[in-house]
Amino acid sequence: MIKKVSIAERIVQLKLMCRKVIDRYPFYFFVAMFLCMLLSAVLAFTGMRVQESTKLPTFPGLATEGIIKTTADVITSYGTMVELEELQQRIALIIEKDTLSDIDSIRLSDALKRYEYIQRSLIHSNQDESTP
Fold first, then answer.
1. How far apart are CA 84 and CA 86, in angstroms?
2. How many domains in the chain?
3. 8 Å CB contact between 111 and 93
4. Which residue, 117, 89, 94, is CA-closest to 106?
5. pLDDT at 56
6. Cα–Cα dist 100/24, whole Å
7. How far is CA 66 from CA 58, 72, 78, 122, in A?
8. What pLDDT does 27 receive?
9. 62-77: string of b/e by CB count within 10 Å (b at 16+)?
10. Are residues 32 and 76 in the same domain?
11. Arithmetic mean of pLDDT, 108-112
12. Sign of CA dihedral 123, 129, 130, 132
C-alpha cells in the first residue's frame, strides 16, 4: 500500500532537507544572502527611485488664525491654573498653622491678593471673549 503523506510531514521533510543543505554549504548561502542585500541596495537607490518627490496636498481656505489663538489661550489658561493651584496650596499651608508670625501674615496677604488678581483677570478675559 501507498502511504499517504500529510502536508505537515512534507513541511518537516523540506525543513530537514534545507537544514542539511545549509549545514553542508554555509559559505555559499552567506554569499547568496550578501548578494541579495547588495542587489536590494542597488535597486533601492537606482532602479526603484521615484524621479520626483510627492508633495503633500494643500487645502485652500483653512483658517489657522482661530486655531493659533485658541492654542495660545489654552497654554495661558493652563499656566494660570497651575499658578492658582500653587497659591491655594500656599494659602492652605499658612492657614493650617496654629499661630501666624508676621512673615506668615505678609505671605498670606500677598498670596490672597495675587489669587484675587488672577481671578479678576480670568473673569474679565471671559467677558471680553463672550461679547461680539
1. 5
2. 2
3. no
4. 94
5. 63
6. 89
7. 19, 10, 18, 19
8. 95
9. eeeeeeeeeeeeeeee
10. no
11. 90
12. positive
In a domain, 52, yes or no: no
pLDDT at 121 over 60: yes
Whether residue 51 lies inside any domain: the answer is no
107 CB-near residues (< 8 Å, 6+ apart): 90, 94
Cell numbers for 97, please give them.
Answer: 498653622
Domain that holds residue 35: 7-45
pLDDT of residue 58: 61
Compute the mean pLDDT over every residue in the chain, rounded to the nearest whole number. 82
Q: Which residue has the cell 500656599?
A: 90
Task: Choose the weakest-confidence range: 8-17, 39-48, 60-69, 111-120.
Answer: 60-69
Residue 36's SS3 state is helix
Domain check: are 34 and 81 in the same one? no
